[in-house]
Specification:
Elements lengths: L2 H5 L38 H4 L8 H12 L7 H6 L3 H33 L6 H10 L9 H38 L7 H7 L1 H7 L5 H27 L17 H12 L2 H9 L12 H25 L16 H33 L8 H22 L3 H29 L9 H48 L1
Helix pairs in contact: 3-10, 3-12, 3-13, 5-6, 5-11, 5-13, 5-16, 6-7, 6-16, 7-8, 7-14, 7-15, 7-16, 8-15, 9-15, 10-14, 11-16, 11-17, 16-17
Amino acid sequence: MGQDEKKGTIVLDNFNSTTNLTTNPGFQSTLSLGSKEVINEKAYNPFEHRKVEHPNSTIGSLVHLLKSSLGSGILAMPAAFKNAGLAIGALGTIIIGFICTHCVYVLVKTSQEVCVEAKKPSMGFAETCGAAFEFGPKRLRPWANFARTFIDYTLTCTYLAALCVYVVFIAENFKEVLDEYNPDYKLSVEVYCALTLVPLVLICQIRNLKWLVPFSALANVFLVICFAITMYYIFTDLPNPAERKTVASVTQWPLFISTVIFAMEGIGVVMPVENEMAKPQQFLGCPGVLNVAMTIVISLYGIVGFFGYIKFGESVRGSVTLNLPQDEILAQSAKILMALSILFTYSLQFYVPMEMIWRQIHDKIAVKYHEITQISIRTTAVIGSVALAAAFPDLELFINLCGAIFLSSLGLLTPAIVDTVHNWDRGLGKFNWILWKNIFISIISFIALFAGSYVSIISMVEKYNSTAMIGKGANMTSLST
């Protein structure tokens, strides 16, 4: 066949019924001429490719999410209101709660979207942050590994610090009760911290979230009963709200922000819970697991904080259960139930740092040593948290510092950065509202980080100095005697 004949020939060798109608790759033709062959590749759906050995139900996921946020922090809310006042505390709780919920939402949403781009069924917190950079602006792509590693280590430190707070909660509540029955031989908080070691080591050997659901459910029951008893005491002979500060000193607001962020933030648990859901599409949306859980959390936190501060005023302690009467059985039962609730919650919070540690090292260890290595690491981590808690048993200041340093950066700043990077090339909305929104969240995070840390450390130093002076005075008195 000659050259001229070729020019006039229509070649049908590669003809198909879904012929491309444009060179724009974003356009997908839906024309079909009856061919059974599907030419266009189906969009990757990560939910269809997830294979979870022990998937959680929607209710089970809601229980886990509630438990991760409704821990010891709810009973620290009256102390938070002390640093803000009634009006600022109520308004601030709603605002910070909304911001925390939004940050969790954008993180999960980003994770689901980058899973489609990376063609992976699921991603953890660190993987999501790394993927946001990897599939983001070209200039930022070399930072993907750094973002992944940074979040891994920071999240591990965050939850190990939170576990120390949990140990102090357990120890102080048990001490309050047992000191009443043994007044002649009172043990220190440090000793009670040490006594938590054995049960915590045992419960932390559980490795699947599915098997932790009963513990979370039981912890929620204990917490509800404790909450009911605490509210009974709070609403009994409630003072006039006019006796309390409406607006506290601005210098104390960072402590309020830090405490509320610590109390509400469960961002490290969010991704494991969403990744192990049987129906992960029910996590976001309305009503959705996230919205239902956070609506309950914000409401309860506001109620406990507002009325707890009205009841106990400036004398309120790091956990409001410690303000309950020491000599009444009902109040004692609330303290015991609270301690047990936190004990069972410990294993859920422990899941996050352990999952990250194991992911980093399991490939470097022979399979036959996996079991003994898991047991050793889990035991060592629990011992470390108990030892650190015994070294710094001041509950309220510990909460403030943890919230300021760790959870403000991970719970607020990180999702804001990830959301910005992920949407930079995809569009930041009309008038760049996504960018401005994330700048506002970052400012809140920096206020909590720097101002909250400064005020917490200053308070710790002052308390340490006052304790040292009291001890020195006692020694001088004994010498003079």
